[in-house]
Amino acid sequence: MIKRIFLNFKRYTFLMSQMVSRDFKVKYKRSVLGILWSLLFPLLQMSVMALVFSQMFKFRMEGVNYLVYLMSGLIIFNYFSEASNSAMTSLVTNFPLMKKIYMPKYIFPLSKCIFATINFLLTLIPFLLIILFSGDKNTHCIINMYYIFLPFAYLCVFLFSIGVGFILSTISVFLRDIFYIYGIILTMWQYFTPTFYDISMLTPELQKLFYLNPLYHYITFTRTIILYNKMPDLSSWLWCGGTAIITLIIGCIVFKLKQDKFIYYA
Predict the structure, then answer these.
(1) Which is deepest, 58, 112, 147, 153, by most CB within 10 Å?
(2) What single-letter DSSP state applies at residue 52?
(3) Which CB contacts under 8 angstroms, 24+ apart, belong to 233-236?
(4) pTM, whole model, 2 decimals?
């Protein structure tokens, strides 16, 4: 079974790469700066967010570079938001193609998640510049040996996004209202994810609720390394890996059970 899945994936690798390439061409079509917007947009967004929260709302965290704290949470949430949103619409927008030729249907949401991942990797470049050149002598972040573990957190976000994307894309075939419902859910999810505040400000009861949010653990994992120069503890590793794998498995099961019915709702 595993061998068959691997061979099938390998067989359609070229097609998936073409779909990712198509997404890039469509996104930056008639754009003067083109792919440079993948670097400039997050940098400009970070600047605006930093101005709003650090200057207007006077958010501060003692002994911590607040700009890096804010951005480390924001880029992960934005990555998940883009990946899950684009995966959700991938099947519906590609119904005409699905009617003409056969291809594994999982390619559509998966290619969207890969495209979002490439964008995310590009945003890490301006984020690294902020890490290196922001903060004062007390809050300046340094590159430490634990950075080699950061890809684990980003891989977990990727797997989690695929799982959620499979679930959402399946639901969207049968219930188009999910396009609007998920926008509301994402807005609520963002406020329940500590991107611009510390959960220590909340009551112990609310903090326990936040622990159920997978994005909280992915963000905390990265902040432990970048801001506090520490190795994340074992529970953090288990929460990140466990939620990512479980969500991916559930997403694959839901998608596989319903994929044969997709064509009837095209």
Answers:
(1) 112
(2) I
(3) none
(4) 0.89
